[in-house]
Amino acid sequence: MTLSKFPPVASIAQKQVALSHSTMTVAQAAKLMVEKNLSSVIVEKDCQRYIFSIEALLAHLARDGDRNALLSDISLPVLPCIQQNQHVLAAMECLEAFGRRYLGITDGDALKGILTYTDLLSAITPTVLVEKKKVGELISRSELISFSSDWILEDILCHFNDLEDCVVVVEGDVAVGIITTKDVFRIIAGGKNICMPLTHYMSSPVTTIRTTATILEALTQLKTQNIKRSVVVNESARLVGLITQSELVRYVYGTWISLTKYHGGELRELIDMLDLERGDKRGIFTAGEFVGLDDKQGFQRKLNNELDRIGRYRSAPFSCALFSISICKQNQCVTQSQPYYETLNNIAAQLPNWVRKSDGVAHWNDDSFAALLPHTDVAGARVFATRVKACIERLVSDTGIDLMVNIAIRQISTKDQLDEYLVDIDDGMSSAVAAQC
After folding, report:
1. What would the pLDDT profile of 38-53 be if each residue is shown by its tens digit?
2. Are 237 and 320 part of one and the same domain?
3. Which ranges does the record mark as transmembrane (predicted)?
4. For all residues of the chain together, what is the average pLDDT?
5. Whose CA, among 101, 248, 319, 321, lies 20 to 30 Å from 213?
């Protein structure tokens, strides 16, 4: 195997790019995206490139933003760029490092195209997949959002923050319709009424995939139907969860990298570069490394979305719970050992099964996991935390490991309370665990 197996980004990037001035309005930018059938426009200002995407548009409107606002008045993310002769693994590293969905492809200083997860998906070679891996093993339950058909579209706009986001319309536990971010964009860009029940907008029937399907079958479904997520059902056709395009891409490229390590000399330079950039992960976990869990950045977005929901609907507060895991041996905390990492992996794999579908779970930091509990007061959060702690202890009960679980819980209804909690858990949890061991 040689580097030719990894195509250059120029060969898979979208060549059509829509450029706009910062004096363009939100409505004009949306019209431009519709006309060119694109999901973003590039804004050039002060020798810098910014990106205005469908996600940014919907987030702006969900905050009751003015459609006639100038792009220069909106906080837009910088477009990270990579040279067109770089290969797709370098592009994947760049997307992950910046936490973005869009990557500019340049030739010198000239912008030549845009790369997204959809483009990376098209470059995946199916022969490198572990074809026996099942969809059910990768489901991220925390990503599933469902509503009954009598909900009003205007009331759920806050759930469309990412191009992969969708709302599944259910009757009982059966999916009867789906509304995606692109659907909402087309509705709003077309000036249509958004105050009707979800049945007025949803696509039906829903294309689904079974939990027993392989990763290859899921990839094929996404590619052939040009969709960004698969709705996963069990053998009884009951709704189980979602598996998104980016989750599949991360898994496949992770598998690809692992496989190449067995091919020796030709790729040694590439592997050394990746290991150096990742900080040699043999003994260190970074937040968001576990498949099926949010990373820290994604989790904080969900926290902010919950605050927006409370402000908009004056609804009940939510709670957060942070679980910090340590292994104790002879009154000392043991880290960077094989049992330690195996234990964290086992907890990460089971954590989505211990929460409600409406809850959010994330790998927070090294040995810590976080849970977001909507519509839950501190008393309910304590009950939840006690139950999860018992589940963790049962999970390792047969391993002979002496485990300590330290828990920090907080009920939150304001931005100040959230900021204070985040500072407290980042500053205090490690020392608290060490002291109790």
Report:
1. 888 999 887 789 999 8
2. no
3. none
4. 80
5. 101
Question: Is residue 335 situated within a structural domain?
Answer: yes
Has residue 272 been placed in a domain? no
Using CB atoms within 10 A of its CB, is residue 125 exposed (0-12), middle (13-18) or buried (19+)? exposed
Q: Are residues 205 and 172 in the same domain?
A: yes
- Domain boundaries, position 431: 296-436
Beta strands in 150-294 (DSSP E): 166-171, 174-180, 208-210, 229-233, 239-244
CA–CA distances in Å: residue 112 to residues 43, 78, 184: 14, 16, 29
* Mean pLDDT of the region 367-386: 91
Amino acid at 275: D
Residues 137 and 75 in one domain: no
Among residues 210, 209, 159, the alpha carbon closest in space to that of 180 is found at 159
- Looking only at the bridges linking them, the beta strands covering 332-334 and 318-329 are antiparallel
Residue 149 half-sphere exposure, CB side, CA atoms within 13 Å? Answer: 15
Cα atoms in the 13 Å half-sphere on the side-chain side of 289: 15
Cα–Cα distance measured from residue 300 to residue 362, given in angstroms and rounded to the nearest whole number: 10
Backbone angles phi, psi at 411, to 5 degrees: -85, 135
Model-level pTM greater than 0.85?
A: no
pLDDT score at 264: 44
* pLDDT, greater one: 120 or 279: 120
More confident residue, 80 or 22: 80
Long-range contacts of 123-127 (CB under 8 A, 24+ apart): 123/7, 123/11, 123/12, 123/88, 124/219, 124/249, 124/252, 124/253, 124/256, 125/5, 125/256, 126/216, 126/219
Number of domains in the chain: 3
Give the amino acid at 20. Answer: S
Q: What is the pLDDT of residue 6?
A: 61
Q: Would residue 20 count as lying in a domain?
A: yes
CATH number at residue 47: 3.10.580.10
Continuous H helices in 239-374? 245-260, 268-277, 296-313, 338-350
